[in-house]
Amino acid sequence: MGWDKARFLGLWFPVLAVLLGACQAHPIADSSPLLQFGGQVRQQYLYTDDVQDTEAHLEIRADGTVVGAAHRSPESLLELKALKPGVIQVMGVKTSRFLCQGPDGTLYGSLQFDPEACSFRELLLKDGYNIYQSEARGLPLHLPAHNSPSWHRPHQGPSRFLPLPGLTPVPPEPAGLPAPEPPDVDSSDPLNMVWPSQGQSPSYTS
What we know:
This protein is of the alpha+beta class. It contains 2 helices and 10 strands.
């Protein structure tokens, strides 16, 4: 009986060795939900109303200045891309400039992405607002005061932002197409369901 048991284990030992080797060669991928945000891209507006009488959207202009605009504009539509879990880069959709922060906290738009100056940690608050901090320096992202340039008192502006979804533009109507005519209610075919005859009936030919 003992010999049969040893023989049985001897037959299964190579199979177990192959299975264990396959498990070691192909580890199970990390299924953490945080890793699903890597490379995620969102088009949003960053709205803030931190300061009394101030409602603004973060705007990256073509000359590289960063301001708070009272209304949404093409320059305030931003692309937020996840670099890794909790860290993003921000780029103006129209200007193709990255949002960056200087050593003193000033904001500017750069055509070149600098990981040290243009990477921000995104912190989610319970009220739906977000706080953004420089990943390298730990400085919070402050929006300049309304109608003031980005280098004017960078630490005294709003710092809480509400991400708003970017609106999908409505495609323009094709040019050159005539407007549809209203139906002829007095006609026997007001909806033009019957195709016109391509020829005359033989009974009406002379």
